[in-house]
Fold this protein.
Amino acid sequence: MGTVISLALPASPPAGGAAAGGHSPDDELTAAAAVVERVFRELDHTFTLYRPTSEASAIARGELSLLNASAVMRGLFELAHEWRLRSEGAFTPERPDGVLDLSGLVKGYAIREAGMSLLALGQPDWCLNAGGDVLVSGSPRPGSGDPWQAGIVDPSDRGLLLAGCTLGGVRRRHAALATSGSTERGDHIWTAAGSTPAFLQVSVMAGDIVTADVLATAIFAGGVPMLDRAADGWDVDVLAVRADGQLLATPGFRAGGG
């Protein structure tokens, strides 16, 4: 998906100890990394438009219709269409040239699916980061209820953090953080024809990663009106950076956490 994916797990048991189920910590770490890699690789093979053999490329060339596409392709298109309606068009699954491109949705979906696979594997405590979009479960100190700590990079200086936030834990309602903008990957988010984006970067904290990812993209594309709709219509917190560097933040970000 053109990005780096990282998985953080709590520290291993003391030397000589065994992890849950009798498996060694190294075995569990290897299995966890493998299941995450498998989820992302399979979805990338289906949805990438950079590989001519992918299902998405076949649809773009007109060789495959959505009606005859795989269940996962049809399901994500239906989900993308629902988000287009809910965002009043700020989020869209079609590029300006009309080509179906579900990249604005598939990364969040892949993170969610990988997280579910980790839970099914018996891993309750983890932090999964895919290109700056983060989903957490449990705690970095198992059993403590402590939240995970996440940072948001300053779009004007990638070596600095713009803000910190807390995710997960027993007292935090947000487990996901997603950021959209053009400073890291260039202009890849579609705005209305001829319009200039109101924001350099938008970060959204939400209870689930798909909501956070889609709304971050929709707010970047739709500007302040979409930010207002998101803040009123969803249980999220938003931190947006205007083109002049001014910050717009909902109460959760102003309070320093989720």
